[in-house]
Amino acid sequence: MDDPAPHWFKSSYSSAESYACAEVAFGPAGDAVWLRDSRKPRYGCLEVGPGEWSALVRSVGAPAG
Predict the structure, then answer these.
(1) For residues 46 and 21, what is the distance between their CA atoms, to the nearest angstrom?
(2) CA separation (Å) from 22 to 3, 37, 61, 65?
(3) How confident is the prediction along the chain (65 residues), in pLDDT tens digits per residue?
(4) Which of 32, 40, 45, 52 is exposed most, by the fewest CB atoms within 10 A?
(5) What is the pLDDT, as a whole number, of residue 16?
(6) Contacts for 19 with CB less than 8 Å, ≥ 6 apart
(7) What sign for the dihedral angle of Cα 53, 55, 56, 62?
(8) 19-34: string of b/e by CB count within 10 Å (b at 16+)?
(9) ∠ CA(17), CA(26), CA(9), 5° rounding?
(10) Burial class of residue 53 (count of CB atoms within 10 Å of its CB; 0-12, 13-18, 19+)
């Protein structure tokens, strides 16, 4: 993660009462997506490419089965 201060935003499914809070930040050149636990940001983040991010978003919205 080269950007010293990425703009993190919470998932729309996260809430103040939820223990499952995810945050996402996009790389400045659009070549990376960073994911982290908003409750434990000091633990670091997971970096994926734009293709992997698109696949994840599509699979989350897909019907189960």
Answers:
(1) 14
(2) 19, 5, 16, 24
(3) 554 678 898 876 666 666 778 899 999 888 999 999 888 889 999 999 999 999 988 888 767 66
(4) 40
(5) 66
(6) 39
(7) positive
(8) eebebbbbbeeeebbb
(9) 20
(10) middle
Those residues with Cβ within 8 angstroms of residue 62's Cβ, 6 or more apart along the chain or in another chain: none
Predicted confidence at residue 22, as pLDDT, reads 85
What pTM was computed for the model? 0.74
Q: Which residues contact 22 (CB under 8 A, 6 or more apart)?
A: 10, 11, 13, 14, 35, 36, 37, 38
What stretches of the chain adopt beta strand conformation (E)?
9-10, 22-26, 33-37, 46-48
